[in-house]
């Protein structure tokens, strides 16, 4: 284990602070709005090795959910309610205070993240104690948690390569492996959702985020089990199966997995992630300014696309070939999808074969379309023209 500051120090957990730190102006983070609170972390931290126990890891994640991602907290410090902290961990026994002290002592003495980063000159490793300082007293409900400066770049002002999820997703997870695996799955599924909407990746690349693969070696690394459960059957039972069962029971994911062999050994695991069907609840985003601004931009852009689609000659052609119905004309998402993703490809075909070439293509598509395809007509038409255009271009060459 690397030499880490505070690793040798003895911490007296019973000392009551005599200064006025607890009287400073602050916002104490409570769990009343748990469903609205989210964890935002850089993907390098998600893929790091968490050298800590379950309680320390959950406490770190809970503290991260108290950070305002738009600004650095003063002195890298957040404040938690002790009462709510016990509630989050569902601790109600008479020994809850001693358990809390033990968890903090372990966090400060032994817990750290081992982060691997790809730099221009090679791979770089960092070992970071995430929370070196925690303070509370016996006469009020507040717990001061101070992050190390080294961990902050992985938690704030993140413009790319970050993952976010609701802290409530972790509350019922009782295994360190469940938490680690959930974070990794969320990282991949976040990218699936992002590129499904924004584009910028091929269809098979987007699907790969929903069905991510990881080598057994890497999975052992991020779960810190490289030297444990040497027999894969034991590893699968203790780490993999138990974690997946907890994730499926207590989070918004339904996950299955496949084992892939290289020779006679299990070489990698392919996960299949589905989101559970539930009420569309974006309430935790309501106070997120970036989310609200992005939402407003999307509405404005969609309205513009709909107007353009209504004026497009391609919309009339689709109607004439019975590929669009009058009901479809009332659906903004269909029209916006056609204008954004399909009509530009029709323009390419028109340049190559003229308007009659587009009509011939639509006649063929109309003769082949199945009833089930009409439920997602924009996606179906996009796939059809994407498959046809390369053939036209080769023929013209």
Account of the 3D structure:
By secondary structure, the protein is α+β, with helices and mostly antiparallel strands. It is built from twelve helices and twelve strands. Strands 1-4-8-7 form a four-stranded mixed β-sheet. Strands 3-5-6 form a three-stranded antiparallel β-sheet. A three-stranded antiparallel β-sheet has the order 10-12-11. Strand 11 (253-262) and strand 12 (265-275) form a beta hairpin. Helix 5 runs antiparallel to helix 6 (203-210), helix 5 (176-198) packs across helix 8 and helix 11 packs across helix 12. The longest helix has 37 residues, at 332-368.
Essential attributes:
three-stranded antiparallel beta sheet; alpha+beta; 12 helices; elongated
Supply Rg: 26 Å
Uncertain runs with pLDDT below 50, 5 residues or more?
A: 1-24
What share of residues are in beta strands? 15-25%
The H/E string reads EEHEHEHHEEEEEHHEHHEEHHHH
Distance between the termini: 62 Å
Q: What is the total tally of β strands?
A: 12
Mean pLDDT across residues? 82
Shape: elongated
Number of helices: 12
Tell me the strand order in the biggest sheet: 1-4-8-7
Largest sheet, if any?
Answer: 4 strands, mixed
Derived structural class: alpha+beta
Q: What portion of residues is helical?
A: 40-55%
């Amino acid at each position: 284990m690397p030499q880490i500051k505070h690793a040798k120090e003895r911490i007296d957990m019973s000392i009551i602070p005599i200064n006025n730190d607890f009287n400073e102006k602050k916002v104490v983070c409570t769990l009343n709005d748990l469903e609205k609170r989210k964890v935002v972390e850089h993907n390098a931290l998600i893929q790091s090795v968490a050298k800590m126990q379950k309680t320390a890891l959950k406490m770190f994640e809970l503290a991260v959910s108290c950070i305002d991602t738009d600004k650095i907290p003063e002195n890298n410090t957040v404040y938690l309610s002790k009462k709510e902290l016990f509630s989050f961990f569902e601790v109600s026994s008479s020994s809850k205070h001693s358990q809390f002290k033990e968890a903090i002592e372990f966090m400060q003495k032994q817990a750290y993240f081992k982060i691997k980063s790809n730099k221009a000159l090679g791979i770089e490793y960092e070992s970071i104690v995430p929370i070196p300082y925690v303070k509370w007293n016996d006469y009020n409900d507040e717990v001061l948690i101070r992050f190390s400066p080294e961990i902050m770049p992985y938690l704030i002002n993140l413009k790319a390569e970050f993952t976010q999820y609701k802290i409530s997703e972790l509350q019922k997870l009782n295994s360190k492996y469940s938490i680690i695996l959930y974070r990794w799955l969320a990282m991949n599924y976040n990218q699936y959702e992002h590129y499904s909407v924004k584009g910028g990746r091929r269809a098979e690349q987007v699907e790969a985020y929903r069905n991510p693969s990881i080598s057994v070696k890497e999975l052992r690394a991020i779960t810190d089990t490289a030297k444990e459960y040497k027999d894969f059957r034991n590893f699968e039972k203790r780490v993999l199966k138990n974690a997946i069962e907890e994730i499926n029971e207590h989070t918004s994911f339904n996950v299955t997995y496949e084992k892939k062999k290289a020779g006679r050994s299990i070489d990698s695991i392919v996960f299949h992630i589905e989101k559970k069907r539930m009420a569309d609840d974006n309430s935790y985003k309501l106070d997120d300014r970036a989310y609200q601004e992005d939402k407003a931009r999307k509405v404005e852009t969609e309205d513009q696309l709909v107007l353009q689609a209504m004026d497009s000659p391609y919309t009339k052609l689709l109607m004439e070939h019975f590929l669009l119905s009058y009901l479809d004309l009332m659906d903004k998402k269909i029209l916006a999808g056609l204008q954004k993703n399909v009509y530009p490809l029709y323009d390419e075909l028109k340049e190559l074969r003229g308007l009659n070439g587009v009509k011939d293509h639509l006649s063929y598509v109309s003769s082949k379309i199945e009833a089930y395809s009409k439920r997602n007509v924009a996606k179906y038409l996009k796939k059809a023209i994407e498959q046809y255009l390369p053939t036209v271009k080769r023929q013209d060459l």
